[in-house]
Amino acid sequence: MKTIKKIFKWLLYFLSIPFAYLIISLVLGSIPIGRDVENIKVEKSIYLTTNGVHLNIVVPVDKVNPSLLAGIKHSDADRYLSFGWGDEKFYLQTPTWSDLTLNTALRAVFLKSSTLMHVTRYEQKRSDWIEIKVNTAELEKLNNYIQNAFQTDENGMKIRLQNEGYSPMDDFYKAKGNYTLFKTCNSWVNTGFKKSGLKACLWTPFDFALMNKYEENITVRLVE
Questions:
Q1: Alpha-carbon distance 87 to 114, whole Å?
Q2: Which of 104, 139, 207, 216 is the most exposed place for a label (fewest CB within 10 A)?
Q3: What confidence tens digit (pLDDT) does each residue in 101-142 have?
C-alpha cells in the first residue's frame, strides 16, 4: 500500500510540472510590455508569421542591414527574408509535422541542444503575415538582434549547411545559443521584439501569445 501511495505521489509530481509550465506561460504571455504601436511615429514595415507552432520574423530585403545580409543566400528576385531560430535536430528531422517523433520532441524540450537559423526567401508578400510598423531605430535594433544570432567561422562568415532545407527557397545556418524549455523558437522572437522596443510579451514559449498582441491591434483598427 505504501508503495502504491509513493508511486501515486511521484506521478502527481511529474504531472504537475507541465501543468505549472503551461499556467506560468499563459500568465506571462498575457502581460504586454513595450511601446504602443499607435502612439509612435513609424516609417517602415516588418512582418510576423507562424506555421502554427514556430514564429518567424519577416523583413523586406531592402530593409535588411548589409552586415546581416552578407553571407545569406539570396537573389535579386527575393523581396523578403524570413528569420527563425530553433533546435537543430528538430529543424532537420521534422520538415513536416507528420515527421515529428516523440524522441525528437522530448530531446528538444528537455535537453540543452544546438541551434540553427532558418532563413526563407520570398518573392512576394503573403496574405497571412501580420504587418508591424516600426521606426528606424527599432528596425536597426532588430537587424542587430538577428545578426547576433548567427554563428560565424574564423573569418566572420555565416555558416550555411550544405544541401539542407525544406525547399529551394530556404536554408539553414549555424546559430548561437542552446534551445531549452525556457528558450524556445518563439521566445527568441519575443525577446527580439522586446530588445527592439516593440510590443511583446513578458515571456512566452508559444507562438499565439505574441501573435495575439498584434492581431488585437488589427481588430481595433477594423472596428474603428
A1: 6
A2: 216
A3: 656 666 666 667 899 999 999 999 999 999 999 999 999 999
Specify if 13 maps to a domain.
no
Q: Encode pLDDT of 78-104 as tens digits.
A: 999 999 999 998 888 876 566 656 566
Return the closest-CA partner of residue 46 out of 57, 37, 35: 57
* Beta bridge mates, 44: 134
Q: Structural domain of residue 199, as residue ranges?
A: 41-223
Q: Please classify residue 185 by burial: count the beta carbons closer than 10 Å to its beta carbon, then call 0-12 exposed, 13-18 middle and 19+ buried.
A: buried
Diameter over CA atoms, the chain: 72
138 assigned to some structural domain: yes
**Domains held by the chain: number:** 1
- C-alpha dihedral, 85 to 87 to 93 to 96, nearest 10°: -50
CA atoms 125, 197, 109, 17: torsion sign: negative
Cell of 36: 504602443
DSSP 161: P
The three grid cell numbers given for residue 202, joined into one nine-digit string: 513578458
